[in-house]
């Protein structure tokens, strides 16, 4: 017998049951039960495939390391996981630290969705952040693609940001080495 090695990773073998398998983190990071000592913001949007069809089975994760102190009572401080809805919609309620670093992302995002062999990493910034022009992360993104990472303010503390997995509207995604 010969031994065959493959380069399959765990992200390639998750299978069709990710929503059920990952529900514990959705429950542990639910916006309705968020306990935080900081003010909050909400970033909502829709996740789309390359044809503009909403993706109804994605998982969106948000990471805010600087919010861990404000969310010490949470099971997973500084972390959110939300599934997209039937129309691809998602909503993230996030702690906004009292003195956020100007030009820093509001949160780092990981996207898991059908058809992805490997999850994708990105970040979302707030349009009313006066430090966007000095952002070290945004400076790494071609100027014509930076807007794909910026959430538009629609009301006080409320922002809209869509995720496009492909097309000329594709959200800028990052590779980590």
Describe this structure in words.
This protein is mainly beta. The protein has a single domain, classed as Aromatic compound dioxygenase (Protocatechuate 3,4-Dioxygenase, subunit A), CATH 2.60.130.10. It contains two helices and nine strands. Strands 1, 2, 3, 4, 5, 6, 7, 8 and 9 form a nine-stranded mixed β-sheet that branches. It starts with 17 loop residues before the first helix and ends in a 13-residue tail after the last strand. The mean pLDDT is 85.
Helices, strands, pairings?
Layout: H1 18-21, H2 23-28, E1 40-48, E2 59-63, E3 79-83, E4 89-95, E5 107-112, E6 120-126, E7 150-155, E8 158-160, E9 163-164
Keywords: Dioxygenase, Oxidoreductase
Protein name: Protocatechuate 3,4-dioxygenase
InterPro entries: Intradiol_dOase_core (IPR015889), Intradiol_RC_Dioxygenase (IPR050770)
Can you give me a brief rundown of this structure?
The protein is built from two helices and nine strands, in the order ααβββββββββ.
From the alpha-carbon coordinates, what is the Rg to the nearest angstrom? 17 Å
* CATH homology superfamily: Aromatic compound dioxygenase
User: What's the number of domains?
Assistant: 1
CATH class type:
Mainly Beta
Estimate the mean pLDDT confidence: 85
Shape: globular
N- to C-terminal distance: 36 Å
**Main pleated sheet:** 9 strands, mixed
What are the low-pLDDT stretches, counting only 5+ consecutive residues below 50?
none
Report the order of strands and helices: HHEEEEEEEEE
Assign a percent range to the helix content: under 10%
Quickly count the helices.
Answer: 2
């Amino acid at each position: 017998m010969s031994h065959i090695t493959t380069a399959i990773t765990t992200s390639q073998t998750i299978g069709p049951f990710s929503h059920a398998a990952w529900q514990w983190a959705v429950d542990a990071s639910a916006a309705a039960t968020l306990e935080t000592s900081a003010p909050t913001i909400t970033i909502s949007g829709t996740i789309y495939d390359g044809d503009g069809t909403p993706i109804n089975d994605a998982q969106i994760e948000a990471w805010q390391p600087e919010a861990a102190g404000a969310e010490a009572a949470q099971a997973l401080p500084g972390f959110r996981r939300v599934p997209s809805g039937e129309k691809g919609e998602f909503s993230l309620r996030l702690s906004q630290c009292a003195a956020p670093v100007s030009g820093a992302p509001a949160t780092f995002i990981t996207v898991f969705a059908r058809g992805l062999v490997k999850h994708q990493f990105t970040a979302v910034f707030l349009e009313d952040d006066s430090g966007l022009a000095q952002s070290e992360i945004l400076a790494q993104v071609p100027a014509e693609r930076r807007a794909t990472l910026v959430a538009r303010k629609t009301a006080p503390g409320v922002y809209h940001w869509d995720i496009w997995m492909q097309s000329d509207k594709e959200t800028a995604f990052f590779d980590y080495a």
